[in-house]
Amino acid sequence: MVIIMNENEKDFMNQMNNLDDFSVEEIAEKYPALDENAKKRIVNKCMEKSGFSVEAESEYDDEGEIVVSGTERYNRILWHKYTSSVAAFIIAVVGITSVVILHKNLNGNDDFEIDETPAVSNYSSENETSTEETTVTTKDRGYVAGGHDYANDTEYSGIIVGGVPQTPPTVEEPVSESENNNSNNNTPPAQPVTQAPVAPPVTEAPTAVTEPVTDNVQSESQNSYLDLLYYVELSGEYMGFDFGSDGSLTKYTFDEYGVAMDNTIVTTTYEIVENQFSYVSPDGYKRTGTIVSKDDIGNFIVNFDDGEVYNFNIQRPDFKVFFSLSGTDWYWVDENNYSENLEIEFSEDGINGNYIIFPEDVTTMESTKIPFTYEKNGYEIIFHVKDPTCNILHVELIVPDGLDSVLALENIPLAVEYTDGSIKYFYNGN
Amino acid sequence: MTDSEWEQLLNSSPRQAYETLIEQYGNLVYAIVLNKIGKCGSKEDVEDCVSDIMVELLKNAGKFSSGIGSLKSYISTIAKRRAIDAFRQITGKNNMHSDIDDENIIIPPASYDIEEETEKRILNSNLWNTVKSLGEPDSSIIVYQYFYNYKVNEIAKILKMTSNAVQKRSIRARKKIGTILKDGDYYE
Questions:
Q1: Are residues B93 and B54 in the same domain?
Q2: What is the pLDDT of residues A99-111, one digit of tens each?
Q3: What pLDDT shows up at residue A102?
Q4: Does residue A338 sit in the same domain as residue A419?
């Protein structure tokens, strides 16, 4: 998250760094800033400056360890860890991608080797009679590396065909068994297979040339709440899908609190034509399905042609009702009005209706009284202290019959899902 | 630990003395130093200055007598003096390597305007009272963000909140501070 400090902030910071002695003492007492690592660093510096060996008295902490004078412990800077992780991740992705591509190519050559004899012999025998084959291999020339015209090398023409598995032909061929065995694991098992041509069907090579799709996977780390995206449960975990207007698709993974931990921007395309939903992944894999259900909120269900069903949910269905409130928190009931009484409003239109007013004494509630339960109109609100030192409360809301679940995040609307499937939103924050 | 007990410890084990000293007064010294050089120095400069102060305290342990006042006041005084020295050193060093037109460089004033400085101190004292009046966790957020210069994600970790929540609260808190100070609640 990049924070740009404006002039007001700078001014504010200058003022905060020019406090009187009494205020500074108070801050030091109430808000200690030195953690254990900082203390150790300072002690070591003190020892060095005093002329003592840094390890001179370390036996208090490290009894039995071999002490080496003239060295000091290196406390790794925290951001190095994250940078290293990101770098390692990128290297891993690049490595895996390379291995996969290499593997694919090798598999293609293996195919050729297996079928080498019949392929060459077939071609040799047919070459004299067929003119179509020459045309086909000339079209394929664009894929051949190095600009060498392999098409004219009769003995290598088999390699041209078998060695370019990435080229997605527009004509789907019956898949041979050897190809099935070599299909790569990184493509979903049920995808509609568009196979590279194998050696024998040279005459049925693609009639239209499609550029190989570049794998434009970029990764970046971020840690933030997301305002709007679709959640789909995949293998027991929720994955976020954000469909951009430019056709980009962003996938997010989440931590246990629903905070997006990283996202992977995948350059791809998607399309909705009437009830048909389709998208193309970077490896050229196209998936299509039928939208079988769509509600007013924006949730939709897609039955993919491969048999899988994705529920694209605008809210994460398994989310618990936890949002932070404190004695000085403001809870917005509409855009312009807020209340310090921690007031939540439930109504059909989100403006007027029955109120659940949190009791005034929430602000002075002691941790010994936690969890504190408050009931009104069938609603049950349970307060849990998250951190007694800063008086932040976690609030759990149990709703009366007629409401299935309540979904909330701090920075997105509080959503109440009714038994009839409809969802109402209540806004927290401006 | 009483002042006399403290004196005894200083003379026994240096490391333990430093550890105890920093445990008890480290945060105070750190805050004092940060208040003086936080705007112009790096985190390393601040820690360096804190260690200088601790070394000086240990070297001059014999000079302190409980008769001249509390050890806390003594340490505060030493810390302030050392921090001012560090401020002069850092700003001098920065000036050598920086463009004179750079607005971010803090040049020590040629003449020290006592009246203006006093007025500033009163204003900043009011600011601190206002920050305190925000209540938690907003006060903590403001202190960690604008006094200790912590990043939002660091604060979020300390206060066990989300970064987004910290950011939002910080904005609201500053708005509120602005409103209170503008209304003159603390100028009465």
A1: yes
A2: 888 877 766 544 4
A3: 83
A4: yes
Q: B160, A3: Cβ pair inside 8 Å?
A: no
Same domain? For A100 and A127 the reply is yes
B162 contacts in A (CB within 8 Å)?
Answer: 225, 257, 259, 324, 410
By the CB < 8 Å criterion, does A82 face chain B? no
pLDDT band at B67 (very low <50, low <70, confident <90, very high): low
Same domain, yes or no: B79 and B144: no
ipTM of the complex model: 0.74
B108 in any annotated domain = no
Tell me if chain B has a CB within 8 Å of the CB of A221: no
Domain that holds residue B90: 3-97
Same domain, yes or no: A329 and A303:
no
What per-residue confidence (pLDDT) applies to A83?
84
Is the pLDDT at A284 greater than 80? The verdict is no
What does pLDDT average to over chain A? 52
Q: Which residue in chain A has the smallest CA separation from B167?
A: A3
Residues A285 and A350 in one domain: no
Give the gap in angstroms from C-alpha B175 to the nearest C-alpha of chain A: 11
Contact flag A42-B76 (C-beta cutoff 8 Å)? no
Task: Residue window 118-177, chain A: list those with CB within 8 Å of chain B.
Answer: none
Asked which of B41, B72, B97 is the last residue of a domain, the reply is B97
**Count of pairs with CB atoms under 8 A, one residue in A, one in B:** 181
Of residues A121 and B13, more confidence is placed in B13
At residue A417 the predicted structure's pLDDT band, cuts being 50, 70 and 90, is: very low
B109: in domain: no
Q: Do the Cβ atoms of B160 and A28 come within 8 Å?
A: no
- Tell me whether residue A211 is in a domain: no
* The last residue of a domain, from among B97, B129, B154: B97
- Quick check: A75 contacting B, CB < 8 Å? no
3-state secondary structure chain A: CCCCCCHHHHHHHHHHCCCCHHHHHHHHHHCCCCCHHHHHHHHHHHHHHCCCCCCCCHHHCCCCCCCCCCCCCCCCCHHHHHHHHHHHHHHHHHHHHHHHHHHHHHHHHHHHHHHHHHHHHHHHHHHCCCCHHHHHHHHHHHHCHHHCCHHHCHHHHHHHHHCCCCCCCCCCCCCCHHHHHHCCCCCCCCCCCCCCCCCHHHHHCCCCCCCCCCCCEEEEEEEECCCCCEEEEECCEEEEEEECCCCCEEEEEECCCCCEEEEEEECCEEEEECCEEEEECCCCCEEEEEEEEECCCCCEEEEECCCCEEEEECCCCCCCECEEEECCCCEECCCCCEECCCEEEECCCCCCCEEEECCHHHHHCCHHHCCEEEEECCEEEEEEEEECCCCEEEEEEECCCCEEEEEECCCCCEEEEECCCCEEEECCCC
CB contact under 8 A, A17 and B147: yes
Reply yes or no on whether the pLDDT at B127 is more than 70.
yes
Q: What is the CATH number of the domain that holds B168?
A: 1.10.10.10
Residue A16 resides in a domain: yes
- Give A8-17 pLDDT, tens digit per residue: 566 666 777 7
The reply to whether residue B121 touches residue A41, judged by beta carbons under 8 angstroms, is no
Residue B7 has pLDDT above 50, yes or no: yes
Q: List the single best residue of B10, B12, B29, B128 to mutate versus A (max A Cβ within 10 A).
A: B128
A13 with B151: Cβ contact below 8 A: no
Asked whether residue A121 is domain-assigned, the answer is yes
Contact between chains at B26 and A20 (C-beta distance less than 8 A):
no
Q: Inter-chain contact A58–B50, Cβ cutoff 8 Å? A: no
Interval B60-79 mean pLDDT: 70
In a domain, A297, yes or no: yes
Domain count, chain A: 4
Q: For residue A272, give its domain range.
A: 217-312
> Would you call A57 an interface residue with chain B, using a CB distance cutoff of 8 Å?
yes
CATH of the domain at A238: 2.40.128
Nearest CA in chain A to B20: A43
In a domain? residue B76: yes
> Considering the domain boundaries, does residue B102 fall inside one?
no
